[in-house]
Amino acid sequence: QCPCPRAHQSAWAFLHSLAMQQRPMLRTGSKVRGTERRIAMEQIGRFAPSPSGRMHLGNVFSAMLAWLSIRSCGGKLVLRIEDLDPDRCRREYADQLKRDLEWLGLTWDEEQTPQSLRSEAYRGMFSRLEEKNLVYPCYCSRVELHAASAPHASDGTLLYAGTCRNLTDAQRAAKTKTPCWRVAVPDEDVSFTDGLQGAYTQNLARACGDFIVRRADGVYAYQLAVVTDDAQAGVTQVVRGSDLLSSTPRQIWLQRQLGFPEPGYYHVPLLVAPDGRRLSKREKDLDMGALRNRYTPEQLLGMLAHACGLLSHSESVRAGELAEEFSWQMVQKENIVITNP
Ligand code: GLU
Questions:
Q1: What DSSP element (H or E) covers 171?
Q2: Closest listed residue to residue 209, CA positions, set 157, 245, 172, 248
Q3: Among 3, 41, 124, 252, which residue's Cβ finds the most Cβ atoms within 10 Å?
Q4: Residue 322, Cβ density class (10 Å: 0-12 exposed, 13-18 middle, ≥19 buried)
Q5: What is the predicted pLDDT for the residue at 18?
Q6: For residues 248 and 159, what is the distance between their CA atoms, to the nearest angstrom?
Q7: Pocket of ligand 1 (CB under 6 A)
């Protein structure tokens, strides 16, 4: 018998934790290409909805692809309620969202603490950026920003002119307004390869300029929160709408500053009306309240799977059945026109 059971136990716990960290996943290569067996790290995906209204068809589509992508490789899905913005987000919407996902059969393995309760974690990351001298207070008013920020970046983000970047301590001390906080970005390209959209490069200084990481009311900005949350949940793949493609270089740059690993990204097409306009939460006949009255979960999933190329025709199908055949190579990358939902 071991004379020192405590040491024995802790060594065992250490080995166990190592095995858990590096749990290899053996998969046959049929969906990976070729026939060789591959060893991969456990994949962790996430679905990160904002509870600012009832879930709509576009959210269902992103959730379905996030679910299929992770289930098809045997990974784990984390649900995260992105309720950073206290003015827009409501607890009832978050609860309803979960019921809608369950109704669809898009289940998750773990729920991360909602963003509204994680400001301590974000504060920690903000301090790290501060230690690296990357953040500075910005006192510009909305009017000043609009006046000084032309030209606008392609996606409508204001290109910040850097007005407050080099204020002296005396100039800062003389301000009375509560500042927001920005990160100083370099004039450098950030590149990555999206699993669906392909190669993407953005120069942060020219695309958006120094961006906000903490609002004047103390709420941490989406870019910092999302990077912190994804890293802390060990997320290895991010599947989300292509409206966020242009935010990704900001997030990758933050990951690099904070020493976080870079997940794989898949930006999925948006659902648009025939005139190209994005379908939104305002279209009540496309929210889950209306959709649940008209369709079964299997019909809805079947329609969406057909719309993006996963099924040759629209038929009722369960999420699990779709996962068996899923491959990103089948998914179209161009926006999808919804004519008569
Ligand atoms: N919360 C965002 C939304 O609902 C998604 C953010 C993300 O996936 O990174 O649009």
A1: helix 169-173
A2: 157
A3: 252
A4: buried
A5: 33
A6: 16
A7: 48-50, 82, 226, 240, 244
Structure confidence by residue, pLDDT tens digits, 256-297? 999 999 999 999 999 998 888 888 777 778 899 999 999 999
E runs forming strands in the chain: 24-27, 38-41, 44-47, 76-80, 110-112, 135-138, 180-183, 189-194, 198-203, 212-214, 237-241, 264-268, 271-272, 336-337
Give the long-range contacts of residues 312-315, CB within 8 A, separation 24 or more: none
Distance CA 216, CA 208 (A): 19
Instruction: Report whether pLDDT(155) > 90.
Output: no
- Ligand 1 centroid to 270 CA: how many Å? 13
- The pTM assigned to this predicted structure is 0.86
Beta strand pairing status for 264-268 and 76-80? unpaired
User: What share of the chain has pLDDT > 90, as a percent?
Assistant: 77
Predicted confidence (pLDDT) at residue 138 exceeds the cutoff of 80: yes
Distance CA 44, CA 104 (A): 20
Q: Taking 80 as the threshold, does the pLDDT of residue 28 lie above it?
A: no
Token pair in block for residue 228 = 């912190």
Which residues, in sequence order, are bridge partners of residue 76?
A: 44
Amino acid at 112: Q
Positive or negative torsion for Cα 223, 226, 231, 234: negative
The closest-lying atom of ligand 1 relative to the alpha carbon of residue 240 is 8
Is residue 14 over pLDDT 50?
no
Task: Give 64 Cα–ligand 1 centroid separation in angstroms.
Answer: 14
Beta strand 38-41 pairing with 24-27: antiparallel
| Torsional sign, CA 201, 205, 206, 212 | positive
Beta-carbon contacts of 24 under 8 Å, excluding residues fewer than 6 positions away, are 39, 40, 41
174-184: average pLDDT: 97
Asked if residue 142 lies in contact with residue 109, where contact means CB atoms within 8 angstroms, the answer is no
Does pLDDT of 222 surpass 90? yes
Closest ligand 1 atom to the C-alpha of 82?
1
